[in-house]
Amino acid sequence: MTSQTGPDPDAIAAALAMRPLGRTGLQVTPVCIGGGPLGGMPKLFGYETPFERGVETALAAFDGPFNFLDTSNEYSDGESERRIGEALRRRGGLPEGFVLQTKVDRDVRTGEYTGAQVRRSIEQSLERLGVDRVPVLHLHDPEHISFEEGVAAGGPLEELVKIRDEGLARFIGVAGGPVGLMSRYLQTGAFDALITHNRWTLVDRSADALLDEAVSLGVGVINGAPFGGGILARGTAATQDYGYRPAGEEVLARIRRMEEICAGAGVPLAAAALQFSTRDERVAATIVGVSRPERIEETARLAAWPIPEGIWPELEGLAAPRETWLN
């Protein structure tokens, strides 16, 4: 079978073989369905997601080839969790072995990110999702406060550990952007999982050392935004933003060259961008946001799309200059 025709069912099954999530004992598919777009995030993605389509997409995720779904208290003011909760209600609960993770967030209206806010956040999430507990719960975007505030007595991290100890979450993680800050949180020894986003892609390699550190600590690595917000899926003709901000001309030139290489090999750019992450043995799962039921099957095909081994050195050599990375 040539790369132009895409993967067959056996190739898809092989590409989606379970992986361990660090030391947790959880087994997850190498692709995690991202629930951000399920609630509609027009400021980031440029489109709305109608309620019923969001629910149907969540149902497709639960009944599809993946066993991992990511959401957050903050996404669309809780609408992502509400729609996932409605999907769970309709299907009668989570499939056996399915891993649902969410995140505690600051109060986006007031900016409060305290231990009390973390407690409110998980209580809201459990109510929306209609579950008593979640397998994995992340401290989300702690860059909105100082590290010292995050780890202070009575603060967000202490409350998150209490939530785990109470059994409302089996495992806890930290999810955020700045790699230096994420490293400081990992060094506390409190976390079982890490989500890094937009910083381990064909373009941006900021998180390389962070991934090594997480693995050395037994922390499960989850890589978010392998498409850099869309440009590594839709191409430079569709958008000129990377990581939700304008990309410079040097970055765009490199992505255009990636597009040419992929087109010449009959490979979707999105397949190469996704597999750059999934082929990395340090990465347990890669988050791909979806907003339509048909995207579930499409994502599985991208994860398994046959890519000639010879193009990887070219693609990997086109990483943007370090000074353009998000860090």
Give a quick set of tags describing it.
single chain, 327 residues, alpha/beta, TIM Barrel, two-stranded antiparallel ribbon
Give a nutshell description of this structure.
By secondary structure, the chain is of the alpha/beta class. The protein has helices at residues 9-15, 42-45, 51-62, 79-91, 115-129, 147-151, 156-165, 179-186, 208-216, 231-234, 249-265, 269-278, 294-304, 312-316; strands at residues 19-20, 27-28, 31-34, 68-70, 99-104, 134-140, 169-176, 193-197, 220-224, 241-242, 245-246, 285-289.
SSE map:
Layout: H1 9-15, E1 19-20, E2 27-28, E3 31-34, H2 42-45, H3 51-62, E4 68-70, H4 79-91, E5 99-104, H5 115-129, E6 134-140, H6 147-151, H7 156-165, E7 169-176, H8 179-186, E8 193-197, H9 208-216, E9 220-224, H10 231-234, E10 241-242, E11 245-246, H11 249-265, H12 269-278, E12 285-289, H13 294-304, H14 312-316
Parallel strand pairs: 3-4, 3-12, 4-5, 5-6, 6-7, 7-8, 8-9, 9-12
Antiparallel strand pairs: 1-2, 10-11
Helix pairs in contact: 1-13, 3-4, 4-5, 5-7, 12-13
